[in-house]
Amino acid sequence: MNSHTPLLLLLLIIAPAVGAQGFNLELYKPTTIAALAEEARKTKEQVGHAPTAEDTVVMPVERYRIRLSYAGAVRTLSAENKGFIQFVAKSFPHIPSEQWVAYTHEIHVNEGATQLWLPIQGRVLETLIPALPSGAEFEVYVFWLGENRGQQVCVINTAKTFAK
User: What residue ranges define each of the domains in the chain, with the CATH number in brackets?
Assistant: First the structure.
């Protein structure tokens, strides 16, 4: 079993939600990382699965906007997140591969005490980071792909900073 063979796979292919509707910020529903984690937990329970730290859960690809704070660090996309994105991409062959490979880096973010690294498109990173000091709050517009080993995987499509 490879590292991305899901112990639990919940995948609903909803093509219109991912490519056909274009980039409309009104389609992004407000949420929090904590709410996504709770949704993943409930989904596992509904199918009678006792969650473990090794679970991979692929959720319906949904659009969300989440308010976070920037922890001040950027890194190249981790092998763990890259592998998970590739795993999810195989389930959506109608989405051009260029969209999936656009996620080249990750930014370190906080939501309260929760810290995580979120994959971000290179073009978004280039414009966002110069305008975002460490500790600044901002809103990300993401596709939530699911949970991989207890970490929520949301890929950032764009972001909005707030004036001070």
Answer: 15-161 (2.40.50.200)
